[in-house]
Amino acid sequence: MRDLSGNQILKNVDKSVMKLDGDIGTEFYVFHEIADENKFKIMYRNALDLIPLKDSQESLIISEANMDFNLNMEILQELNTSFVKIFLCFYQTQ
């Protein structure tokens, strides 16, 4: 679900930080098989709501998703200030 929502923001940040054109390097965030993202999100949420989970399981899933998002943000921050960014910029000019 996050890949269709919040990760679209990360896609734009990736493209900006690494100065990428089109979907090169961000194809992970593109879902060609999904014609209508909003309808898909509603259907997906409804399916998730039907899964019988205990409160502790829900909390664990939410914690994991939040940790994943924070780790992705840290990677982007590192790319924005590290040798990797310099190398990518150099490589793209070749």
Could you characterize what this model shows?
The chain is mainly alpha-helical and 94 residues long. The protein has a single domain (2-93), classed as Heme oxygenase-like (Heme Oxygenase, Chain A). Helices cover 67% and strands 0% of the residues. It has four helices and no strands. The longest helix is centred in the last third of the chain and has 27 residues, at 55-81. The chain is flat and about 50 Å long. The model has no long low-confidence stretch (mean pLDDT 80).
In percent terms, what proportion of residues is strand? under 5%
Element-by-element helix/strand order: HHHH
* Overall domain count: 1
- Given the structure, what is the number of helices? 4
Helix-strand blueprint:
Elements: H1 6-17, H2 37-49, H3 55-81, H4 83-93
Which terms summarize this structure?
single chain, mainly alpha, 4 helices, 94 residues, Heme Oxygenase, Chain A, 67% helix
